[in-house]
Design brief:
homodimer; alpha+beta; SH3 type barrels; Fumarylacetoacetate hydrolase, domain 2; 2 domains; 8-stranded mixed sheet; 6-stranded mixed sheet; 27 strands; 18% helix; 26% strand; globular; calcium (chains A, B)
Chain lengths: 421, 421
């Protein structure tokens, strides 16, 4: 697919994350502090809330859906409205747009450099999956040995667990090292102390844009998905190791989950669809895919020690997932579980087959046994205070890329006394 | 504590669940279908939304907090406002109230028999715990053998997992038997089929009425709790057995969770506080309780086959919990996990030490090996289509009881084809 040319010149470069082909949805504020819905194009943000209020571009002729600091009301309108809005916006920003249109959109836009970005949607509920086979194999090998690495159900079920929506934050939010119950392997009893093995997990997040009541097929699930973000599922490995049996991770995953600030729509990613890998065990019919449901999106992780330069510690691709978000969502509904607009599905850590493509420090340092060398001369087994972690993602077209904006967070030191008031 | 006498005569009997000592909060509608906040007293419901609009009884002088079909905005006001509102309502309903007050409250009330009850609050997020030691021991024995019954962390951590808020329903909502992945012990591969081992779990639900950002102490956690409901955590045991390793229960618990319709406030339960059991292993300091944090509440479960009489299949008491809701909530915040108004915490199944006091059919029928005899002559290993399950709860005072209203649901047969449209 070629670059779609825009009259916004900064959107026509191979370097921008936000060409006309992308048009991702976010929430921004400028000096006045007012939160507004916006669309990224090159180095500018179109004020979608302003365009709606002025009657220049409306998603719904009868109701304001962008007069709130989130895209949930817009998502409620459904796929036809999503497509019509995107088509109208594409036309208004294309190089064929009239002078009048250009003037209007220039008025209702701000330089991205002057904006602060906020959570682009209200998270209804957050579910995290475990859909990367390399990740599951690596972690399973470390926790249970190579022979029991992949749980017996893994090739049949897109394994998932419910996470904590209240802990989801937008890129840029600092993340404080948590306290938790830790038990050393040779200790009889646990202690309550700051986490020593704080980690990242490189994931994609799928945003559910339409509700469901009963079970849905994979095709129906795909149609319900509004878009994708990058997602870092911060993980306290020492807390997790002691707490996770028998009911799964709980406080180990509840400190924070960071998402990138722009919702890249499923429409923008359409040209980059790729199939899930060949099945090693036949899937049950309800999980069969009617077409390619993954996306060819390059992903990477960089770690920046405080006051030092960044090192890219991992490079992988979304196509390494074994189950697609549509399959995960279909499985999520099998019990009759109602899904809601704004539900967020984390893909699970996306690790590739090589050592350099592992999406967590747990895997990169093999449980701390093989610390990762940084360009600064330091090394890391797990995250240290002051470290900034950044996830990058890009689907690469012919002379352009579809980017997500960074998914970033800096580690603050643990509180000295979490109960001091 | 003695009965507080009300001018509402039906509130002064030993049989009523709703004496003046109780005053639980719910949401109701009558013929016009309009949902309103209400307070139960004897066989009547006081229209709290109407009293607020009329200026007769306001929780906040400056804002309407009861003009919505849930008590969340009221909870936001905090413990001082909760106490002041309860005191005012108690005075207005006491036998010492003036004629004028009686007339006003009679005008703003309806017979309970003419009302339909709805969810009393919006569930922000739902967490389910595993805090009954007898239950954990029973289930552990069946799943992992008597020697590994209690997981090593159980005596140190109030084990919990995040559930699905969208699946929480009010008493009276029918529950459809789910489909799911099932794998027979001797089968190589799973099948997708209707659940064959559908079960109940007798629990209490604690409702978080105040938010938190960082870790909170047990005392602070107790102060954040607004009230309690009865809770049935419907469970698909065959789905759970195949899916739960390594990340915990997911679709097995997502069909529905039923709660009783009235929020019984912490204030109403205050006279019934009892301590948690003696510790077999010392708790970490952050879990120590400053006082008694459980409640002496008699609990029972009845099973009613379609067209037959009810059988009480279990009797137990909330004091059988090993960890209190305050301890669970304190643990929930250790990671820095933000808690929100409307968060619901399930206690975990509350089983007593005897066979007759077990809070699930899994335990009562010992995994199906010892079917439970019903008064109708039938027996049950797990729930059958048409069965109605009812949880009852009562704290017993001197000549009165604090009740919750029934927590009830009937099992509908599984869909023939869950994907037929």
């Amino acid at each position: 697919m070629p670059l779609l040319k825009s009259w916004v010149e900064s959107a026509n470069t191979p370097e921008t994350a936000f060409p006309l082909n992308n048009l991702p949805y976010g929430v921004f504020s400028t000096e006045d502090g007012d939160l507004r819905c916006g669309v990224a194009i090159g180095n500018r943000i179109i004020d979608a809330t302003g365009l709606e209020a002025a009657g220049i571009l409306r998603a719904d002729p009868n109701a304001d859906v962008l007069d709130a600091p989130f895209w949930n009301d817009f998502m409620e309108l459904g796929p036809d409205a999503w497509a019509a809005y995107r088509a109208a916006l594409t036309a208004m920003l294309s190089e064929e747009a009239s002078e009048e249109t250009r003037d209007a959109l220039t008025t209702y836009s701000v330089p991205m450099a002057e904006a602060t970005l906020h959570m682009p949607f209200q998270v209804a509920e957050y579910t995290d999956f475990y859909a990367g086979k390399n990740h599951a194999t690596n972690v399973g090998t470390m926790f249970r040995g190579a022979e029991n690495a992949l749980p017996p159900n893994w090739l049949s079920i897109p394994i998932g667990y419910n996470g904590r929506a209240s802990s989801v934050v937008v890129s840029g939010t600092p993340v404080r090292r948590p306290w938790g119950q830790l038990k050393a392997p040779d200790a009889d009893l646990p202690v309550f102390a700051p986490c020593k093995r704080f980690d990242l997990e490189l994931e994609m997040g799928a945003i559910v844009g339409q509700p469901s009541e009963g079970p849905v097929t994979v095709a129906e699930a795909d149609a319900m998905i509004f878009g994708y973000v990058l997602l870092n599922d911060w993980s306290a490995r020492d807390v997790q190791a002691w707490e996770y049996q028998p009911l799964g991770p709980f406080q180990a995953k509840a400190t924070a989950t960071t998402v990138s600030p722009w919702i890249v729509t499923k429409a923008a990613l359409e040209p980059f669809r790729v199939p899930t890998p060949e099945r090693e065990r036949p899937l049950l019919a309800y999980l069969e895919e009617p077409g390619p449901m993954l996306y060819d999106i390059d992903l990477s992780v960089s770690l920046t020690p405080e006051g030092n330069a960044a090192t890219t510690i991992a490079r992988t691709n979304m196509r390494e997932m074994y189950y697609s978000a549509a399959q995960q969502l279909a499985h999520h509904t099998t019990s009759g579980c109602p899904m809601r607009v704004g539900d967020l599905l984390g893909s699970g850590t996306i690790s590739g087959p090589t050592k350099e493509s592992r999406g967590s420090l747990l895997e990169l340092s093999w449980g701390g046994k093989e610390p990762v060398a940084l360009d600064s001369g330091e090394s890391r087994s797990f995250l240290e205070d002051g470290d900034t972690l950044t996830l990058h993602g890009a689907a690469r077209g012919d002379g352009f890329q579809i980017g997500f904006g960074n998914c970033e967070g800096q580690i603050l030191p643990a509180l000295e006394d979490p109960y001091a008031r």
